[in-house]
Structures are given as C-alpha cells and as structure tokens.
C-alpha cells in the first residue's frame, strides 16, 4: 500500500483499522445523516472562478487569526476521545498541528490533559462545553488561561446531544483504559459523558465566560445571520459556522451554504471561522473565498491520526496545504488574502 | 433483535410480519407512487435554522388544537381496517394515542366500532367519508356526537378512489373474519368498501354536516390556497393539508411543499393541520414551523401497531415525541409555540 | 399473466414479444436518447393541484377538435410500419381508435392503404411527409380528401431523418413481406424509406398544401413560440407540439416543458395539440391543463397493438380514458373543459 | 466489431486498446473529477430550440476563424504525447485534421516536431506553454512563424500542473522510446515535463509574445468575463474558453456554462473559441449557438487516433461533422452562421 493520495483514502484506511464502533462514532452523524452527506457534497454547488496570467511563482498559505499568524488556515477542530483513534491521541495531534503551523483545538472531552497538549508547544485553543457545574466551569476557564491556550472556543450547539443512531446500534463506549481527565470518568458511552453539558447556557453567559477565562471567546456552532449578529453584539472575538459535523440536528443546511449569510451579517465585526465537510484544498478555498478567515478540519486529520498517528495527521494537514496552495495558484492568487467572493459562484442549477 | 430505533426500522419489521397484500395495502400509493416518494423526500428540501444560546432545559411538546391541549402534536391519522394489521386494531391504537396524550382519528372504515374506541377514553375525532346514503350519513353524525367524538374530520379528496396498482396486483381483501361495522360488510377489497362514498359532496354540504353532527368540522384533503379560502368561508373549524398519503392522485405535490401557500391563504382564520410522509421528529418540526398546528401520522404508528400492537404504536409515538423534543431544543425552542417560519428555509438548489 | 394494468406493463410485454430490432425501432430515440427519457420524466416536474368538494358524479372525457367532438382526447399518433408490430397493423389500430371514439392519424409510411383505414369508418387524419416528388405530393393530397380524411397533418420536423443508433446497431429492416403502399417499396430500413421526404419544405408551402388537399392543415413538430406564431400567420388549422417522439434531434426539451410557451404565443388563434411521453391519464391531464386541446399517443397504443392486436390497442386507449376520467374527478373537474392552468404548477426545485 | 457509431464507442475501444496508464492519462481529470463529469453532462442543461419549415437541402459546416475559412468548426485541440496513443501520433492526427478541413493545434509537448506536422500541409496553430527559459520561449516563437503556423495558442491556465490522481496512482511515464523534441527529453512522467512551464507569465507578456512570434495570439484557458475583457484589452486575437479538459482545477464550472458570460463580456471584440466535453454534434451546435466561432475537441479525435490511427481520428471528425450537419438541418439552419442564441435555452430546472 503506497502513501494515501487524499483524505478519502485516509478515511478508507481508518475505517479498516478502527473497530467498527469507533469508526462509526467518528464518521457518523445525526439521524438519517442527510446533513452529513450534504456537508461534503454542497461544495460541488459552488464553482471556482480562476483568474489567469498572474505571477504565482511565490504562493503562501499564511493567515492571521485573532491577531496571530498561522501558516496553514486549517485548524484542527476539537474532537473528543482521540486516544480511541490512536494510542497517542491528542498529543500526537497537537504535535502534528504544531509541525503544520496551525492551531489545535483541545476538546473538553479530550483523553489527554490540557497540560499534555500545552507541553507540545502547539498554538492552542480550549474548546469548552459549558458544564452544568459552576465550579467545573470556572476550573476549565482558569486552566485554559494558565496553560497558555489563546482562546476559548465555546460550543453553543449542544444544549442536548444529537441522536446518532450508528452509536445507538453499535453500543460503542470509550475504551475503559482511557480516561477523560476533565471529568475524571472512564468507559462511558459518548452520550453519557455529554450529560454533564448544561442545556441552559444563554447569550448572557458569553461575556462572563470571556472574563472568567481572560481569553477571547469564539462561539462555535452558529448557523444563522441572526445569531451571528447576536455574537457580535455580545462581544465574541470570533464565531465558527458549524453544524457540529452534522452530529447534532439532522436537516440543517451544509455549512458552506449558510456561510454567505453569516459573513454578510457579521460585516467584518468579528472573525468568521468555518467547519464542515472539508476534504479537499478546494473546499478550504471556497470557504475562504466566501469570507471565512480559516477553517477547522476534524475528521480529516483524525483519519490521518488513526492510520499513522502523528505522522498520519501531519500528512493529512500537508496534503490539505498542498492542495490549497495549488488551488490558490490555479485561481491566480498568491495567498489566501487574494481570495474574493468573485472566485466562487453558486453553480447553475442542474 | 433489539428495539427499533426509528420509524424506518418499524416499517421494515412490519413489512416482514404482515402478509404481502396487507403490507402493500398500507404502504402503497396511487399509480407510479411518485407522490408517495415525494411526500417523504420533500422534507429534505426544507432546511432547519437552529438558534443557539437559549435556555432549553425545560422543553415541552404540548399544543392546543380546537381549544383542547394535547401533549403531543402528532395525531393518529384515520386509517381503515387496522385489525388487518394487528388483531387488536383500532382499540390498541386508541389506547396508544391515549397514553401518548394525543388524538385518535377514527376511520369510517374502521374494523372496530366507534363505541369500542370511545371506551378507551382517548380524545377522539370521527373521520367521515360522506356516504351516498343520506340515512347512513345522519347515523354517522349522530353516532360521532353521542359517543363523545370532539370533531368531525370530513375527507374531501375521495370523490372516487385512487388507482393503487399494488392492490390491483395483490388482489388483497380485508380478511373475512373482520367486519367493517359502519357498513356491516366483510371480506371485500378495499376499493369495494369505498364504493359507498358519495362523489357528489360539495361546499354546500359542509355547514349541514357541522350542524347535523353538532361538532366542529375539519376538512381533510386540502391542497390549494383556493380551497383553503373556501374552507374558511364555509365555516370549517380546521383543515388538514393532505394528499391522502399519496393514495389518491399521483402527481400532486408533497404536502410539505404546499403547506406554506395554504397557511398564507388561511391567514389564521382556521386551524391548519397537516399530514404526509411524517417519519421523523424533524418532519414534525418543519410542518409546525411552516404553520401547522399539529400533524397527523398514519403509516408511522400503523407500523408500530403491526409489529407489537398497542405497545408498538405507543413506542412509535414516543419516538416521534423524543425526536420532536430534541429537535425543539436544538432549534433553541422550548415548545412548539416558539417555532417560526424563520426556523426553516427552502434548501438552496442543488 | 393477468391483464396489464398500465402502459408500462404493455411496453414490457411488447418488448418480450417483438423482435429485438422491431422493438428497438419503436422504442428508440435519437442519439443518446436524452430527450427520449425527458419526454417521459418531465411530467414529474409539473404538479397537479386538485380542487375539492365539487360534484363529480358525472364525468366525461369528450372534447371538440377542429369542430368535431371526439369522446377521448387521446388521438392515435401517426406511426409507420404498424404491421411490423402486429399482422393486423393499421387496420386494427383504426378499429381500436374508432371503438375508443377518437381519431386515427394515418402515416405516410403506413403498411396499410389509406383506403383500408378509411374502410374502418374511423375518424381519420392523413399524416403527410411532404415528398420530394411533386406528383406524389398531389396524389397524397387528393387521396386524403377523397378517402374522407378530415385533416392533413403535415410533419415539419423531418427535413432530414434523425440519427437513431439503436437502428444502426440492429440493422433492422421492415420485413420484406410488408409493403409501404404509399411508396410501393418493400424491405427497406426505416431511414431508407424516409429518403423520399423533401428537405426543402417551407412556410410558403403550407397554404398550397391546404388548398391542394382542400383540408385543414395541422403542422406537427412545432417546438417554439416563434414557429407557433408563424403557423398562425400561415393559416394552420392546428399545430402539434411534438419532438417526434424524441426520434429527431436529441437535446430538445421535453414537449410538456415547451407547451406553455407555445400556448401563450398562439393565444387561441389555432388549435394546439400535443404529443410526447404520454403514458398515464395524469400526463394527458397535465397537457390539457397547460392548454392543449388533445394529445396524440404513439408508443402507448402501439404496445397494445403489438401485444394483442386491435384488442390490445383498444385496451390501452381505455386504460388512458379511465385514468383520465379518474384524474379529472380527483381534480374536481367534470370534463376536460373544466381544466385550467391553475390545475398544474411547476414543481418546486429539488 | 463493426465501425464505431459515435465518440463514446471510440472511447470504449481506446480504453481497451491502450495501456491502463496511458488511458488514465488521457481520460483523467483533476482530483475528484467533478468538473470532468460536468464538462460532458452540462450540455444536457441546454436545450435546443429547432425552427421548422426552412429549406435546408443544402447545409454546410464551414466557418471563418482568424480570417481563414475551415470546413469543419471542430479544431483538433493541442494534446501532448500523441505517439503514446498511437505510433503515428501527431503526424497522423495532422493528416486527419487536414483531410477533415480543420486546424491542428500542435502541443508544446508533442512527440513529433513542428516540422513534421508542418510537412503534412495541415492548417496549424502552435500551442505554447510559456517556458521558464527565455531562450526557449524565443525559439518556440520563431519556429512557429517559420514553419507556417498561423497562430500562437498560449495556454494560460497552467501556472502549476493540476493534481491528476489517476496518474499518481498509475505512475505512468511517457514510453522511453518516445522523445518530446521541444524539450529534448524522454521517459518522464507527464508532470515532470510540465515543470519547464513558467508560473510567472502575466498579461504584460501577451503582447510581447505576439510580436516575438509575429503571429496572432489566442489565449487558451479563459473562464471568466473579467479575464475575457483583459484579453481584449491586451490585444488577443482570440480566446479559448477552456478548463483544460478538467485537468487543472477541479471544481470549476463546465465550460459550456461559462461560455455565455464570456461571450457577453467580449461583445465581439475578439474571437471566442471553446473546448470541453465535446462528444456530439449537438454539443458543437450548442457552443456555436452560445457564441463560439468554433470548438476544439481533444479526447474525441484522440480516441479515434488510438483505435485506428489517422483513419480513426479522421472518422471521429467526420462523425462530428455529420452529426453537426444533421443538427443544423434539424434546427432549420443551413450553416453555423445561422445559429443564434435563440436556438438554445437553459433547461427548466428539474
């Protein structure tokens, strides 16, 4: 078996390597998985518009997010239980992100401690599921700041956990040898861990979270212009247009299809990030052209991690970088900053 | 075999358990079954728009229909010959509806008497196919009122019976051990029972039916703005946007696609109910967001009944409730009343 | 094998009964057969809008075409070489049309003489491919009038014969025992017969044909508003919106999709007929609702003829009548005259 | 095996005859090959609108391109390494083009010399990938003029080579017995040859190339109105709307779908040519009706070459001519000049 050529091949290899239950957990989505498919397929309905005869000998992929330059506008999305995908888990992923010059988002339900991730030296953001327990909430905020995480990514689309029927069928639990240190528990089913998340978080909590952590807050899970405006009004430093990898409410639009309305509503007032269905450099380019500052990729680097640990995750990120770089060149752009909305157009109806 | 996870699994089990002819009768639609498929698939073309950061710790599913509160906005649609699906038939279905806190619509072609259904204590509506025979019509109206049915659901889309080719192929008849007490006949083919229905009912009959029964009249089978306006003008207490489960005229639109025009035309003057293709809580949510007060589900609870009698029907209703509740939470709503048209949007074209 | 339930079943039986080459000749279309498929499938994109609570106890299917009432608005389209489908050929078809109360269009390339068809007593139109030979043209016109044909259907979409690759593959020829009496030749390939058709007919010929025949002229093969206007200006008594059963130019629209522009352009100045892809009564209803006075069906009755001769063709016509009648009732119409454009609507995009 | 009936059959035969790697090289596209499929399928979404009753006895296919009349508006697109498809390679292709009365575009990466192609006497254009090396660039320009090439086709959409995963999988190299005389190298992988192409060509180079060659410059690879306007402003004699056979940036639109915006932007100021997905005469007709002066076909004649050398390539061109001629007749046109935008229409949505 030669080196995988693209993310899809990594997914195939990961599917073969992981247990059925673990693969189903990572790959699956809510209910009928309509949105899961749409997240990936919707990119087809945005056509690229390449400009020619520009000097693109030198092309770079750096962007600046929340004031810091990163060399790859593909962040590692927060993902739970990464040691169930590979023994090196989040630590390997963090090293891969560091090597790729991007940001690692550390999940509340990581199977490594924030300190372990911090020790890799990666640029890091702390993903927070606001817990029902006030003390735990404060502890997470303090921990994030003290361990050098540079932003708090508050997930806002999980007041209750989505119905993921693949998990219900497989009955998969996090392997008991793994601990989720933030909550100190072992061997639960995914949805059982998530029971600690508060269903009562509101807009009023956004500013208090920012001040408790002393960190910029990025709200992850915005899907409407209306909520994007509220995010601006409540002082969010950024938002992530995300449908939680299609794992929460089946029947929401593909994220690439709602990105334009969110970007328009924000009108530059806050940073717009994006995730959902990223498999190709051209997917990244489309999101950036539609107004995202950077994207988060979850499953893509996870398949790399599952297949080959740190090296696999790193290779996936480098594949995405290479594809992004090539797409920029073929669009006549020397950097992500050169991308404009005119580089994409809604596909004609067919 | 573990407990079914969703309505689709119930349908598979029911298909395996029922005779081919009985399954074909319940599952089938008119002619090429184009509308049958569209009824289910059209939901995909309405995307949900979730609002975040709202306190949804307490969520409820109650709605008020014709002045009465029910705890689940999913009524049991009128369906004929339920004892052919399970020996306990309409009585089991009525108990399931009662336990679920919803309304049972009793079919003219039930294989139980209205009295049997009334005895369950369920909140109940009487579905009327206006018969050719005037005496029989009066008898049905009197019976409905005297047995405590709280509305008369007049089916208006069956001036002739649709051509259901699955039935023509199977030759299925209602098993001769079953009687349809309203007409006192046994062992006929479905379309033979329906021959008693009048093809000559007109708008002029609506008010006389209401006064004959002394009950609010709900007109079931409205598919156009024009007829919705006429229903308001003729004093209907409610209408059901319905294409008869795609069993009458193949080639009509999916009901979810005509709901908006009907809701707009009615403009609040009468109660708008809805049926067609409901398989998921998200389908219910879409119909409510587009302006229905509640939906009717037919095949869904019927598959439950076929698989496991009262318990199966009840479980289907509870699955729909759980899915509805979750969908409400993930949309940022605490009750059906919080749903607005902004929670759905026509999908971008693909 | 029980009696076929619909036209699709007739086609399956005909495919099994006919030789591969003969079936390919009748069933096939031009080139990639894109239009062939679209002709049938395009109906799905027009939804019916049924009106309820109208007295439809008495429903009829009669229409008046060119001043004559026919009891079924489904004419038998002109089709060549019908004796290759069944030994009784055009004579059986004419009897079937007569029994069904409709019009038989007699093809220039019939394998029966116009006199044989006239002898059946059927209401008949003479389909004319204008030949290169002037004498033959005059002969056809005189023959048509003298044998009691009541209209001349001039096919205008065959200045050259379409490329039908199924025929090129099969190499099928009209069986040598059959003669095409109009041209007096035997055993040719279809496209060889058609070589006699003139590629030089123009609008200037329309009036001279009408006067040569002393008959109203119907132009068959109009697909644009522009040509529909010209047809009105050149005194056509009627036009047939047709793409020649998708056998001429692959890539033209389905006829149902161009019907509205033609009807609008004509604005009542001439009779608009229609053919293409008619398989169901609901197809007929859609064409009539969009403004056609009647439709022509070709392959549908031909499959009947192939399967069971006159009785089969008759049964197909009666199936279409029954389906049409039922569709009218379910739309709240008592006759074709009650149909309006509001009974159809372009399907929402999906 | 009888003579192939159409281009698709030629492709099947070529696929069987060529090595897997060579077939993959010619047939493949970039990344997920979405645009590869769209290039071919997008024609379906443009419907033809035939006009009838015009005298089309005499039909011709000649057009005038850059002031010269050619008898077939289907040029042979520049394609690399044709001797890997057939030993006679570019020389056979040039003879086929000459016999068909059209233009041969000679690729920078041809496996024949420009002189060999010139010796065939074919009307010829020189396709130029602007090399990094200035001397080589001058040499190409001089060579083109001196060997009687009548235009310089500058490919502008390859500042970097697209990612063609079929090639990465197959590992195919140009067979070592073949030489690419322009660069004097043997046995490389396709992407290795292309490394000589400059990524730094800009609009400023267009006029200097024209004057260096003393030839009209045609810019191949324009996909936007914006670049079409720039081409006019920089004195291009023509442009080719092309996405490089979908081999460069996956996710760009089918060329037929961007042709209208380019034609509108050009507004007659320069010659618009077109390539992408041409398989049928009706594809040619659609491009011409939308405003192209002629089309380039690449894979189509290449499959002919692969199957049967010069005769195969010639047959493919003659098939396209025959299909084009027939399509013109059936549209009521006597020549390409008669085509207008009214002969096509965007298909209704389905």
Walkthrough of the structure:
4 copies of one chain form a homotetramer. By secondary structure, the first copy, chain A, is α/β, with parallel strands linked by helices. Helix content of chain A is 40%, strand content 15%. Chain A is built from 13 helices and 14 strands. In chain A, the strands form 4 sheets. In chain A, strands 4-13-12-11-10-7-6-5 form an 8-stranded parallel beta sheet. A two-stranded antiparallel sheet of chain A has the order 1-14. Chain A has a two-stranded antiparallel sheet with strand order 2-3. The mean pLDDT of chain A is 97.
Concise structural overview:
4 copies of one chain form a homotetramer. In chain A, helix 1 (7-17) runs antiparallel to helix 13.
Please tag this protein with its features.
14 strands; 13 helices; two-stranded antiparallel sheet; homotetramer; globular; 350 residues; alpha/beta; 8-stranded parallel beta sheet
